[in-house]
Amino acid sequence: KYDLRMGYFAFMKGDYDSAESYFSRITSKGEYADHATYYKSYMAYTRGEWDVARNGFNALLDNVQYRDLMPFYVMQIDFKEGKYEDVVANGDELIAKTTPEQVLQINRMMAESWFQLSEYAKAVDYMTRYKSAGGEMGRVENYVMGYSLHRQAFYGDATPYLREACGADDLLTQNASYHLADCYLRD
């Protein structure tokens, strides 16, 4: 119990090295093993150690306290690793049984995953859900929406999104500007 509490305090202070040390002293069959697994997996997730995090989160799928949250973390890992087929295969099921905050994030991941898979109508559908639920439409979100509408020949609808994607002197602005000009020519 001492190691769990001390590990948790260190974790909350952002001292992940100390937290890892405390959590690692908890035996894998002990009463607090699942709690230690969660925190160690979360720290691995924040460090981008996807395999370690995934293994830990999957190990908690049978734990009543953690099982509802773990699929969300696994989906985020899939998204970060570019496993878009896995994201879209599991997203709708997860949306049906999670919190509104997570639904917002899942809709965002689903939109970009469908975009990456060249399924533009589905990308628009999920980005519309994301936006309607209060999701922030930054440059990337506007580009995903605008480009997806453009690819479906909805040029007038695509124009405001592509315009919002423009800004910094970067590749995103260059691509958005190209498609925006094409919208003006075709509309």
Brief descriptors of the model:
187 residues, elongated
Protein model, in words:
Helices cover 74% and strands 0% of the residues. It has 187 residues and is mainly α. It is elongated and about 65 Å long. The mean pLDDT is 93.
| H-E order | HHHHHHHHHHH
Number of strands: 0
Mean pLDDT: 93
What is the rounded Rg? 21 Å
N-C termini distance: 66 Å
Helical content, roughly? over 70%
Unreliable sequence segments = none
Output the structural class: mainly alpha
Strand content: under 5%
What's the short version?
With 187 residues, this protein is an all-alpha fold. It is 74% helix and 0% strand.
SSE topology:
Elements: H1 2-13, H2 16-24, H3 33-46, H4 50-59, H5 70-80, H6 84-95, H7 100-116, H8 120-132, H9 139-151, H10 155-165, H11 171-186
Helix pairs in contact: 1-2, 2-3, 3-4, 4-5, 5-6, 5-7, 6-7, 7-8, 8-9, 9-10, 9-11, 10-11
